[in-house]
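Q: I'm writing up a methods section and want to include an example of the input and output format. Could you take the sequence below and give the corresponding predicted structure tokens, formatted cleanly so I can copy it straight into the document?
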Amino acid sequence: MLKRKIDAPLRIPVFLVAAADAVFWVTVLTIAVFARHAFVWDRVNIASLLVLGLVAAVTHLSVGYASGMYLGRFRFASFEETGAFVGVVAVTTGVLVVVNLAAAQPNLVPSSAVFAAAAYQVVLGLGLRYTLRLLRQVRRLSHHPREHRGLIFGAGDAGSQVARVLMEAPGSDVQPVAVLDDDITKDRLEVQGLRVVGTRASIAEAARRFRADMLIVAIPSASPSDVNEVAEIAQKAGLLVRILPPVADVLTEGNVRVGDIRDFALADFLGRPEVETDVESIAGYLTGKRVLVTGAGGSIGSVLTRMIAKYEPSELMMLDRDETALHSLQLELEGRALLDSPNLVLADIRDLDALRRVFSERRPDVVFHAAALKHLTMLERFPVEAVKTNVFGTRNVLQAALEAGVDRVVNVSTDKAADPTSMLGASKRLAEMVTASYAARNAKVFMSVRFGNVLGSRGSVIPTLRKQIEEGGPLTITHPEVTRYFMTIEEAAQLVIQAGSIGSDGEVLVLDMGTPVRIVDLARQLALEMRPGVEIPMEFTGLRPGEKLHEVLSAPAEEPLRRPHPLITSYPVEPMGSDEIAVLSGISDPDLMRELTWKLVTGAAFEAPVPATVEI
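A: Here is the clean output for your methods example:
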């Protein structure tokens, strides 16, 4: 009970502050009047003084309540309350001057005493507020144990609010000890009682000097590259790093909360702001519609499914061949996992007959085709499987959609389909071309969307690096200069949904993903974030067959058609019909499959035996 009482914040009832302000007016008027008469008591009209003191108290309280100053409109002892208090004193002073001059001669008190009293009132009132706020901070700091000692990078408004919140909030586990800022004009400035002790170059020194173990980056307007650079310096110094996200509303007075200060997220490794594709304004085409997602249990498919569910489709069908993935998806969406929901469809896109039954019975209006095999190295070893799923599986989805009269099909592709060098890229390129072929055969919208590596997706580089870092390394990287385009799963899902609205027949939409990221830099940042101050060794294994040193989003021969969105470019796709890809049917020899696939992708002429009756 005693501990709870000690840890409780110092609460100042508003009526006590209001009463103090009223008493102050009587006090300062008395002092000012007596001072004006050289402290000769007989020359003071006590009755007149008391009358004017009563007028001052009543006026001040009335104006204060009317302005909201005593109604909790302003944060206690904030800049806004200071301005409001000075304004109330000014109005009260004006009323006193009028009352004093209106009195019969002589005046109630000397006019100069009224102005002197107003100055005293400002000093006493603001002094009281500052003292009470200081006591509250001292009480909080004295009795609330903290796990971390933190430096704050950023001496602006956001940094000031972060310092205050960390000092005062009961949920804070950080004791702020000093502030840093790259603006040298802020050197030696004090922020919430904390001294600015240097720039980013001083982080390591400040950490030793103040025994800090954490750095909070509190500059919401900073570019991702700046944030990453500051974070890397701090992590090399052995500091944990937390950031205040670049959100405009955290700059609103009193709006920063402890929960706003977060650890590094995957999106922070992009080196660019996350892309907002304005899905909310165009996703109405899903409301009230029957929507089917293939590969719904996968990394992208599951996030895509969750996003689509927000737009209230009349039916959301989740198709996957992995029953465990469907189990997890239902548990996440519905809070149960009995696998008895008609929304869950267990089927393989390689099975055309099964897809025909599903499409004819459920009659989807919109289809998002996210099912695919995606691991480059594995598909280099098993090219037949790449073609069976990524080419013929896509053709089966398109054929079933065509027969069922589906209005819109969005085929999810990859940047590896642009100028492909691997079986993954070649098979996805053929999938784009088959999609364009089906688009030409009907009046519906069949199109593709292409994006880069997805941060955090299952089997991607981030989970692999995390596991290696946890085990102390080494970090296995193919080449010191290898780069990749990255996006978050949320960005990928947004792009797919937006594409379904703005895409046109047969084209492929490509998201502007900024500058490619070096895998070495990504690995280094992740290691510093997970194990600051610990050197994790790297091992370069060499590029694997089919891998590019640098990915591209479009091939040199691809000319952009249009920009339906400031961040999205449309490219044409050369159609390739079922008759042309039929040459791949029934082939089980990996080398032959690889050879014929490349000839199809490059448009080279060839002759090969084609089993006309075999369908995959």
